[in-house]
Design goal:
The complex is a heterodimer of chains A (about 240) and B (about 120). By secondary structure, chain A is an all-alpha fold. Chain A has two domains: about 80 residues, no CATH class; about 160 residues, no CATH class. Chain A is about 85% helix and about 0% strand. Chain A is built from 13 helices and no strands. The longest helix of chain A is centred in the C-terminal third of the chain and has 33 residues. Chain A is globular and about 70 Å long. Chain B folds into two domains: about 60 residues, no CATH class; about 50 residues. Chain B is extended. The two termini of chain B are about 30 Å apart. Classes of the chains: A mainly alpha (about 240), B mainly alpha (about 120). Chains A and B meet through helix 2, helix 3, helix 4, helix 5 and helix 6 of A and helix 1, helix 2, helix 3, helix 4 and helix 5 of B.
Chain lengths: ~240, ~120
């Protein structure tokens, strides 16, 4: 069996980060192709498709997640620098930010408070454990920030990452329909709500609809990451002290 | 490109180190973002190479979430055990947050007479 050239090749590849790094990119490109072929329908979210393809591959090859992550961590690492890079769209939007300061501050506070309290409230109501609740609380902010918050408060950062990605996909999929239902037509408002709720995945979706929507989504993502990082830890600490 | 990437990484590094030293409850990359923003305001503009590097990083932002998303494999058991609570928090929580954010912004824009953001 060990002499089988395929097995030898597999053993070599499985031990190197190159295989899963490449497959992460390949699966993402396939997902993007499917998304475009489907007329960029929000239901064909590229992150969801790429994740499903990779999970299928991992199960088929009986590869543990840790082995996968040894390769994929190079992609994951870039979340940090990408967060720092949000300073650039923020700076570019500074005039709009000034002009719309009041509506933006109001919407921002509303979204940060609603995101955390709706997640904790619904989760607690339906019997989620404390660890799960803490992991749920920061799910509307971009992954590196959410994972940092979750870790600091005693949640499970890797579970938070999964919940963050799910929230991003859900917002990107359901946003357009919900805005139509609510009669909201202003691209600035739609973008801001998407970015504040669904961080980078919502922002990626917003950029595909229009540049104004994308810019406001990027702005909302950066601001809500900042405000959540400042407000949520003391808020949650008080909540936990009160709730036991 | 290399200088821009270095600038971004050094901002993150300063952010992480400051969090470690001061014990601030803010994640390092967020502090790094503030540092970069402060630098841009001091400088009074975005250098072209920094703009290009940031745009490249942000244009494939969804790709960066894929490795974390695959982590659902590890948490499958826990998620199955608390399925209804997690699903409700995710689906309803997302819809409620989207609606509250959009409606609040609409209301305050109307109150302050700052509608029609597409003009600017």
């Amino acid at each position: 069996m060990a002499d089988d050239p395929f097995t030898t090749l597999w053993v070599y590849l499985a031990a190197s980060p190159l295989l899963w790094l490449s497959l992460t990119l390949v699966c993402y490109l396939i997902a993007l192709r499917i998304y475009r072929l489907g007329g960029e329908s929000p239901w064909l979210n590229p992150v969801a498709i790429a994740v499903a393809l990779l999970i299928g591959l991992l199960i088929l090859t009986e590869t543990p997640y840790q082995t996968y992550f040894d390769g994929a961590q190079f992609v994951h690492f870039l979340l940090g620098p990408a967060t720092v890079s949000l300073a650039i769209p923020l700076y570019r939007q500074r005039q709009r930010l000034q002009r719309l300061a009041l509506p933006i501050v109001a919407a921002l506070l509303a979204s940060v408070l609603t995101a955390a309290s709706s997640a904790i409230g619904l989760g607690a109501l339906l019997g989620a454990s404390t660890e799960t609740l803490i992991s749920l609380a920061p799910k509307s902010v971009t992954a590196p920030v959410a994972m940092g918050i979750s870790e600091k408060l005693g949640g499970l950062p890797s579970l938070t990452a999964v919940l963050v990605v799910s929230t991003g996909i859900l917002g990107a999929v359901l946003g357009t329909g919900l805005f139509r239902l609510l009669g909201i037509r202003d691209d600035a408002i739609k973008g801001f709500a998407l970015g504040a709720t669904s961080h980078g995945i919502g922002t990626a979706r917003a950029f595909q609809v229009s540049p104004v929507m994308g810019a406001f989504a990027g702005l909302a993502m950066a601001l809500s990451a900042l405000v959540t990082a400042l407000l949520l830890p003391p808020m949650l600490a008080r909540f936990m002290a009160a709730g036991g | 490109m290399l200088e821009a990437l270095t600038l971004i990484l050094v901002c993150q590094l300063f952010g992480e180190v400051s969090v470690l030293i001061t014990g601030l409850p803010v994640p390092g990359p967020v502090l790094g973002m503030l540092l970069l923003l402060a630098w841009l305001f001091l400088r009074g503009g975005v250098p072209e190479s920094v703009g290009r590097t940031a745009d490249a990083l942000l244009s494939h932002l969804s790709l960066l979430f894929v490795p974390a998303g695959v982590g659902v494999l590890v948490h499958w058991e826990r998620m199955r055990g608390q399925w209804t609570a997690i699903a409700a928090a995710l689906v309803l929580g997302t819809l409620i947050t989207l609606a509250v954010t959009a409606l609040t912004m609409t209301a305050v824009m109307r109150l302050t007479g700052r509608g029609g953001s597409n003009r600017g």
